[in-house]
């Protein structure tokens, strides 16, 4: 893995509002989609429970946390669900990330379920599936999360950031 991955990863966290990302899943999906748009990291992904997942990326977060470039904290919601916040200090800011600013802003504002669906659909497309097959696989894998038009919203998000959605 390239050493630059760590700098870009810390810079990505720093590029979010308040230099914070709420949720490991959000970070995983954001990096995956950004890589598809030329973000200069080379994290390897596999399809997992919540869609594309990179063990390398999580290892990178753990390492950056130990070195103090970011801080990952575990929280519990009222219903007992565990979630994480990942926060970067000012020293993690990376001026080169500005060329991805528009997409980062779009992804940071996206509903987490829509982001998860978009990244999962895109992962199926990247594996060589045509639109219909990728859409069918998405609905089979994500079930009820695709209801209420969220699957279409996910395709809309992909179109907005410049990735194929049909």
Fill in the keyword field for this structure:
alpha+beta; two-stranded antiparallel sheet; 2 domains; three-stranded antiparallel β-sheet; 5 strands; Arc Repressor Mutant, subunit A; 166 residues; globular
Structural overview:
It is a single chain. The chain is 51% helix and 14% strand. The chain has 7 helices and 5 strands, in the order H-E-H-E-E-H-E-E-H-H-H-H. Strands 1-5-4 form a 3-stranded antiparallel sheet. Strands 2-3 form a two-stranded antiparallel sheet. The radius of gyration is 15 Å and the shape is globular. The mean pLDDT is 95. It folds into 2 domains: 97 residues, Arc Repressor Mutant, subunit A (Orthogonal Bundle), CATH 1.10.10; 57 residues, no CATH class. The relative contact order is 0.17. The chain is α+β, with helices and mostly antiparallel strands and 166 residues long.
């Amino acid at each position: 893995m390239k050493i630059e991955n760590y700098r870009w990863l810390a810079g990505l966290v720093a590029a979010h509002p308040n230099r914070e990302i709420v949720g490991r899943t959000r970070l995983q999906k954001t990096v995956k989609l950004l890589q598809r748009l030329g973000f200069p990291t080379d994290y390897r992904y596999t399809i997992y429970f919540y869609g594309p997942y990179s063990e390398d990326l999580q290892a990178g977060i753990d390492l950056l946390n130990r070195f103090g470039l970011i801080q990952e904290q575990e929280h519990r919601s009222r219903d007992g669900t565990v979630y994480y916040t990942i926060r970067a200090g000012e020293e993690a800011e990376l001026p080169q990330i500005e060329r991805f600013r528009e997409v980062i802003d779009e992804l940071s504002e996206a509903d987490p379920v829509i982001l998860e669906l978009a990244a999962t659909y895109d992962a199926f497309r990247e594996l060589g599936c045509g639109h219909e097959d990728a859409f069918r696989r998405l609905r089979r894998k994500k079930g009820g999360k695709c209801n209420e038009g969220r699957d279409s919203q996910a395709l809309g998000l992909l179109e907005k950031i410049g990735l194929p959605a049909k």
